[in-house]
Amino acid sequence: MRNILEIDGLCKTYASGLQALKPIHLSIREGEIFALLGPNGAGKTTLIGLVCGLLRASGGTVRVGGFDHASDYRQARALIGLVPQELATEMFETPMAAMRFTRGLFAKPPNQRLIEELLRGLSLWDKRSDRIQTLSGGMKRRVMIAKALAHEPRLLFLDEPTAGVDVELRRDMWALVRGLRERGVTIVLTTHYIEEAEEMADRIGVINKGELVLVDDKSALMRKLGSKRLTLHLQQPLPELPTELAAWSLNLIDQGNAFEYVFDINAGNNRIPELLNRINSLGIGIRDLSTEQSSLEDIFVSLTRREAA
Amino acid sequence: MISVNWRAMSAIYRFELARFFRTVGQSLATPVITTSLYFVVFGAAIGGRMGEIDGVSYGAFIVPGLIMLAVLTESINNAAFGIYFPRWTGTSYELLSAPVSPIEIVCGYVGAAATKSMILGFVTLATARLFVPIEILHPGWMIGFLALTAVSFCLFGFIIGIWAQSWEQLSVIPMLVVTPLTFLGGAFYTIDMLPGVWQTVALFNPIIYLVSGFRWSFYGNADVAVGISLAATMGFLCLCLAIVSWIFRTGYRLKQ
Hints:
The structure holds two protein chains of two kinds.
Chain A: E1 3-13, E2 19-29, E3 33-37, H1 44-52, E4 59-64, E5 67-68, H2 73-78, E6 80-83, H3 95-105, H4 112-121, H5 137-149, E7 155-159, H6 167-182, E8 186-191, H7 194-200, E9 203-208, E10 211-217, H8 218-225, E11 227-234, E12 251-253, E13 258-264, H9 272-281, E14 286-293, H10 296-308
Helix pairs in contact in A: 3-5
Chain B: H1 6-22, H2 24-46, H3 58-89, H4 92-97, H5 102-131, H6 139-163, H7 167-183, H8 196-202, H9 206-219, H10 226-250
């Protein structure tokens, strides 16, 4: 698959001496949804700012669709659409005027049909002639998305698209992003909601303290680091864990009312049948059992914790 | 591919002018009212007691200065606001991420602001015409000086708009530096009307040269030679251009 974005050694140290981004190497494949996941202050916005030209890089190169973003900045930037995290709109203008302005800035000829299509697609058509100032927060964000799409970019950056928006709008946003991908737009989104990355992304990059800790396919990531938790609820509480079960490193939880067994889903033999047999032979009655797959959240927490250790 | 992004320049230019025409009433009311007030005070109340200056009635004498006053202030304010506002609202991200060169950005913003100032200059002239008869000896030079002044001070305003970190800073230079300089810039008197040492001091005020050159294009009389006026204005223009190019080279207050 072709790479639409190639980042090589990109780094940023602010004048204050703060190293916001350690040298990063990252390729984004054409047509994918890539989620950049990390806590606040991890360097997500810095990375986007550097690629889009809002910040000056301290080193490294960026190629967009094969064009160097410094020496061929016109060609490179023409391919990129950006929706920043902060709500920033031309408040006294109408959505229509704002979109025409954006198209002009990106050297595209006027295209009323496309603007109409985008505004309709984002449920803004009725508001096309209202001052942006008078729109709700969710609508303003959609205006920003419409503007970012006005010049038909092939690569769209969404910086925290759902930060501070309600659940319904978040679902709409997800649907919108999927729709864009179907139209062939590559999407890089940042989020600190793991749920969002898990829901949306094809691939995930985890960034922490200015460092890209890991990049992988979402499913591979889940598989690779995934563990499963088996909980066995007992009929009678036990005062302590029987020594006969020590080989499984179980935890006795819920005031002695349940065993918890964490196992690697990739391990060839998870030794669950043996465990159940042994419990049975010890005469311990099982009331119920449940299993639970670890979420991206667990993976993320374990990754960043490992980083801190 | 494109070597000049004309569409971006024209988009910025039209966007900025649209802002002006949306509030065209209040934009034009200010200079019209100000000019009328100046005429009531200086033209009628005081001017009646003043003799002619270099064969021109006092009312007519102050017209070029008044126009310069309006153009200077409006140029700085318009251009400063034009670039400060997107920085303040945050929409400047789009400008930085678009395939636009710094020169195109400056041309768009400064061009639009200068156009507005020129329009205001002509409206001021028309207002003055209602009060006193005016002759313009060198209309070509008159428009030339007006354009040069508008562009130079719009560039200056652009610099202020990029430098300012708050609304207070945005207005502090126009208020504390430019307004006094304009009032002491010979709009209402000729240099030789000043007492001895102040004549020399006045020559350090750059506005003197603008007003003098501009007045020359009306009546053919000047405090300083026209060539020097022209050179001083061009010098200021070049200085502003140098600062603007430095701003974009270093990313000052635009890019960290």
